[in-house]
Amino acid sequence: MGEALAGRLKYYFGSWAPKYIAYGVASVSGVILAVCSCAILPLFAKIIILLPLIAGIVYISRKWFTKEQVADWMYETWSLAQKLFPVLLAGVFGALFYFST
């Protein structure tokens, strides 16, 4: 399953991908990253910007990928989050104790 999804993603990001698709996917990803990480934008503006982007991601994922591929992607994403959260928590509290003394 994971190989099929990776192959499908490589199609849209590879050098043989149509430019309008590759640039479109990359620009939406960049906007999401910029909006989520920018502390200058107020929360309401972030919500207004993120809702159409999330709707677009849902639409594209349903159009380009099968339900099995989306479920596999979500499972892998959740698995990665479960693995990273304890490390992130330990790092934050470790830095807090280290720098507070």
TrEMBL record:
Segments traversing the membrane: 20-36, 43-60, 80-99
Subcellular location: Cell membrane
Predominant subcellular localization, coarse grouping: membrane
The name this protein goes by in its record: Uncharacterized protein
InterPro entries in the cross-refs: DUF318
Entry keyword set: Cell membrane, Membrane, Transmembrane, Transmembrane helix
Domain of life: Bacteria
